[in-house]
Amino acid sequence: MPATLTEAREVLAQADPSTIAPLSNGHRYQELSSSYAGIPQRWLVVYAEARQARVTRRVAKQVCIQSESDLKAFK
Question: How far apart, in whole angstroms, are the C-alpha atoms of residue 36 and residue 42?
């Protein structure tokens, strides 16, 4: 399901990796049922620890860049 759909965003926002069933090699998954557009569906939310680490580094880098930009504007 594309993460651009409202229902998919809500599911992802509520997903807690600590409650998701672990798999091997740092992955976790959770199976959900949904009825999107009147069609019953089975969704799998997959969490990868390596992906989370990359996202965390990217966000930290963006925050540093924004902070430096704000400091220059303040000066």
Answer: 10
The answer to the question of residue 16 being in a domain is: yes
Report pLDDT digits (tens) over 57-75: 888 888 888 988 888 888 8
d(Cα 9, Cα 37) in Å, to the nearest integer?
Answer: 16
Chain position carrying tokens 């400091």? 71
Q: Let me know if residue 1 belongs to a domain.
A: no
pTM: 0.51
Q: b/e map of 31-46 (b: 16 or more CB within 10 Å)?
A: eeeeeeeeeeeeeebe
CA distance 17 to 62: 24
